[in-house]
Amino acid sequence: MDPVMNINVIANLTCTADADDTLQIELKKLLKATLAEEGCLSYEIYECNEEKGQYIIAELWLDQHALDKHQHSPHYKYFVHIAPALLSEPVQIKTLTRLV
To answer: Tens of pLDDT along 44-53?
Structure first.
């Protein structure tokens, strides 16, 4: 039987100049709700020091099922719904496999 592989996700967000405060509020709501989800091993949000308005979300999920449930959760769907009004470009999402 194959061992369960954790799922790593990195999301890059670029905020519009006038929505930074609102985006930070919404990211904090998303963080709180997501950390309470079963299968969420880690969910961290960073702001880039060199580029104001650039955010990175680093996620670690127990498995694909946990990530799928997250993507169907009300708080995730709400954030996806409001994000276009707060971001200057679409979110860039990468799913990663750990090499070592």
So the answer is: 999 999 998 9
Joined together, the tokens standing for residue 35 give: 């950390």
Give the integer Cα–Cα distance in Å for 85 and 70.
22
Structural domains in the chain, sorted by start: 20-96 (3.30.70.100)
93, β-bridge pairs: 11
- DSSP states along 17-76: TT-HHHHHHHHHHHHHHHHTSTTEEEEEEEE-SSSTTEEEEEEEESSHHHHHHHHTSHHH
pLDDT digits (tens, 9 = 90+) for 13-72: 999 989 999 999 999 999 999 999 999 999 999 999 999 899 999 999 999 999 999 999
Please report, as a single letter, which amino acid is at residue 38.
E
